[in-house]
Write a structure and sequence with these properties.
mainly alpha, 15 helices, antiport
Length: 465
């Protein structure tokens, strides 16, 4: 058993570590945006925090929809049906282009929410401008994630790592030039930050297309040999898998971002501290997230081979290693929370509030790591609707209502603290919501995998008899 676990962990890690570096580099763009504007002014940091709340919701939703391509292509890889992959990818690029355009339009429309947050006029103007400019990168991001899923399904994750690092380097350099107005350029602050990130998305798409065109490993499944009209029936089949994942991502990220928007009423210090805690915890989350992406690939490939018993083994091995990391990250976050806050901002008031929130973020590391790897294993089974409903219930039935009760302490609620707990109350709600999601997803994965094995064994008995 130990040999099997070590062997599976090696396969998972082979896929996961370049994905992890790529994910860290991608999130590093957001870290750079927050840190670099944070050292310019509190107003620019608040504008980026508010704009990033909307940007993150749409961005991660698009990412979730595109994950369907990973499950579909990886199944064909496991089955050895490589001839089907080029056609799947041509259709997925049409899907990605359409999803990207819709996401761009939704992102621009969503700025209307700033009108209801009682923001200072100049902060609202900066945040709106940030969102509208950064939306130029959305179509490129959707197509990039389609190709990301394609190359990951082939176990080729090196380009994901290299291109994300390239995008991060570009983002930091252009941030430096435009945020601070270096070498005679205008000082654009949060607007310059949006320009850098938006253009970085297009750079990453171009780099991924170039890599796939040049690398020999893609020749057998190269999708761009000829043009092909979109086929709605096939795009709809991928959306049937991808949309529930997108809604799942939306439920989780929108809950976190809704907290950011609700915290805005408590002032610039609360906004900035909340963004620091969210930004850093998102950075740590990339490890279980990367393991989850690798897990989706491994489970899909194993099921494509027809081995349902090993698929369950792969699933729980992935969950186990993710929980081990969560224990380590929670301990480190607890011990170093003040140092982390100081790295983001030099404002003592923001540092203190951020450190308090990072302690709560440390508490939910186990639940967060468990729920993401459970979800990713289920995607390998091409089961996405039940996890979607679980996430909606966990975040909108538990996390946000409890967070509002504790954070806002409205008098009309049957129970509330005597004084609003502000940002701390909202984060306590998030801890509880993530725990509910993790428990229910774990139960569902156990039942689903057991049912698949029982069905497979019954079919074997019928064939023998």
């Amino acid at each position: 058993m130990k040999t099997k676990i070590r062997s599976e962990l090696a396969k998972l890690w082979q896929i996961a570590w370049p994905v992890l570096i790529g994910q860290l580099a991608t999130v590093g763009m957001s870290v750079a945006d927050v840190a670099m504007t944070g050292h310019l002014s509190a107003d620019d940091l608040a504008a980026v925090a508010l704009g990033a709340s909307l940007w993150s919701i749409i961005l991660v939703t698009v990412m979730g929809v595109m994950i369907a391509i990973n499950a579909v292509v990886a199944h064909e890889v496991g089955a050895g049906a490589f001839d089907k992959i080029p056609h799947i990818m041509r259709q997925s690029m049409w899907m990605a282009f359409g999803v990207g355009l819709i996401a761009c339009a939704l992102l621009n429309f969503s700025t209307i929410v700033f009108n209801y947050l009682q923001l200072e006029s100049h902060v609202q103007q900066k945040a709106t401008e940030f969102v509208r400019i950064i939306s130029i990168g959305m179509p490129a991001f959707a197509m990039y994630r389609a190709l990301y899923s394609y190359t990951t399904s082939l176990n080729e994750t090196k380009p994901v790592m290299v291109i994300a690092i390239l995008g991060l380097a570009f983002n930091v350099i252009v941030n430096y030039l435009f945020i601070y107005g270096k070498f005679g350029l205008p000082q654009l602050g949060s607007t310059g930050c949006a320009l850098a990130t938006g253009f970085a998305m297009w750079l990453m798409l171009g780099a991924m297309l170039w890599w796939i065109h040049r690398a020999p490993v893609y020749r057998q499944t190269f999708p761009f040999t000829h043009r092909e009209a979109p086929k709605w029936s096939e795009i709809r089949a991928m959306l049937k898998i991808g949309l529930p994942i997108g809604v799942t991502y939306f439920a989780e990220v929108s809950a976190f971002c809704a907290v950011g928007l609700l915290v805005a009423r408590f002032g610039v210090v609360a906004i900035s501290a909340n963004q620091i805690a969210l930004n850093f915890s998102s950075l740590i989350f990339m490890v279980p997230m990367s393991l989850g992406i690798a897990l989706t690939t491994r489970v899909s490939q194993t099921l494509g081979e027809g081995d349902v018993v090993r698929a369950r083994f792969v699933s729980w091995t992935g969950v186990g290693i993710s929980l081990v990391f969560a224990v380590i990250s929670a301990s480190a976050m607890t011990l170093l929370r003040y140092q982390v806050a100081a790295a983001y901002t030099s404002d003592p008031a923001v540092q203190q509030v951020a450190a308090d929130l990072l302690l709560l973020a440390a508490i939910f590391q186990l639940s967060d790591a468990a729920q993401v790897t459970f979800s990713c294993a289920l995607r390998g089974y091409k089961v996405t609707r039940v996890p979607m409903f679980i996430h909606i219930m966990a975040f909108y039935g538990f996390a946000l209502p409890i967070g509002c009760a504790l954070g806002l302490a409205p008098e009309w609620m049957p129970w509330h603290p005597s004084q609003p707990m502000e940002a701390n109350g909202f984060w306590i709600g998030l801890v509880l919501g993530l725990t509910v999601a993790a428990v229910l997803l774990g139960i569902f994965l156990h039942r689903l995998s057991s049912t698949r094995i029982a069905y497979h064994l019954s079919q074997e008995r019928k064939s023998i008899s």
